[in-house]
């Protein structure tokens, strides 16, 4: 991993995610890029005509100052990037995603009506990027990723995308517990089995009741002190996504621990 992107709006939530991203960059020997999208809708007509906003300059200076502090504190390379645009954050990240290996972003769990229906900003980014993401809840501080819990629903009729996850687990030297949703109110206890896609290596598998999966995932995370909850994101058609109860969306509302979202 060479480059980590950290979008920021200078809120406490995004500043906390930057601290997490900086520590992750340090242990991964990666560079950190702080990114802020400054909406042109907030610029004056004169600034738009000139193509240069004094507010944008001020933001760029503030972000650059943060980078200098981060570089000194974490001994990493940190860069600032401010783009004045009328486009959405999702669209801009999608455009520049090929330059990065991962996104670290804060989770805003204070919802307005739009966010409640369609999901948070971080959730919207996770739906439209192919980059892996770590979504960090407010006030969570970085801890070494030793234990990964991976929640997966076998009824999706897709192969468990374990190979993609094991690549990251090997980088972080982590152990994986697979949380599988099953149609029963009395799921089996933890077992240790070999799983297709891992070769001869065995991982823990815990069955969860599918009807209570969100709550049982949360309970497992808190009781077993897993460092991140991994979730696989797949593209859905618009009307399908409207009526699908997305585990990722629900967990961004509930989680007090980081979510690791991967796509392939």
UniProtKB/TrEMBL annotation:
Question: Taxonomic lineage per UniProt?
Answer: Bacteria, Pseudomonadati, Bacteroidota, Cytophagia, Cytophagales
Enumerate the CDD domains for this protein: USP-like
Descriptive protein name: Universal stress protein
Any Pfam family the entry gives: Usp
What the entry lists under PANTHER family is as follows: STRESS RESPONSE PROTEIN NHAX, UNIVERSAL STRESS PROTEIN UP12
InterPro entries hit by this protein: Universal_stress_UspA, UspA
- Where is the UspA domain positioned along the sequence? 1-137
Q: Give the family from UniProt.
A: Belongs to the universal stress protein A family.
């Amino acid at each position: 991993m060479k480059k980590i992107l950290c979008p920021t709006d200078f809120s406490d939530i995004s500043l906390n995610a930057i601290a997490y991203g900086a520590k992750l960059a340090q242990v991964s020997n990666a560079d950190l890029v702080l990114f802020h999208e400054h909406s042109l809708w907030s610029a004056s007509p004169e600034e738009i005509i000139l193509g240069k906003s004094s507010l944008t300059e001020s933001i760029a200076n503030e972000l650059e100052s943060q980078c200098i502090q981060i570089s000194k504190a974490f001994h990493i390379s940190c860069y600032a990037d401010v783009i004045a645009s009328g486009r959405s954050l999702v669209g801009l990240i999608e455009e520049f995603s090929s330059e990065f290996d991962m996104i670290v972003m804060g989770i805003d769990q204070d919802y307005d009506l739009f966010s409640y229906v369609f999901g948070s900003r971080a959730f919207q980014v996770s739906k439209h990027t192919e980059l892996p993401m770590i979504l960090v809840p407010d006030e969570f501080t970085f801890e070494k990723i030793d234990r990964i819990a991976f929640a997966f629903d076998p009824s999706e009729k897709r192969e468990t995308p374990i190979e993609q996850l094991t690549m990251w687990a090997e980088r972080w030297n982590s152990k994986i517990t697979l949380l599988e949703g099953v149609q029963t109110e009395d799921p089996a206890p933890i077992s240790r089995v070999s799983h297709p896609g891992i070769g001869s290596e065995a991982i823990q598998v815990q069955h969860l009741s599918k009807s209570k999966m969100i709550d049982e995932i949360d309970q497992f995370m808190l009781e077993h002190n897993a460092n991140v909850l991994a979730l696989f994101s797949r593209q859905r058609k618009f009307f399908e996504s409207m009526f699908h109860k997305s585990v990722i969306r629900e967990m961004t509302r509930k989680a007090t621990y980081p979510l690791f979202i991967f796509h392939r």
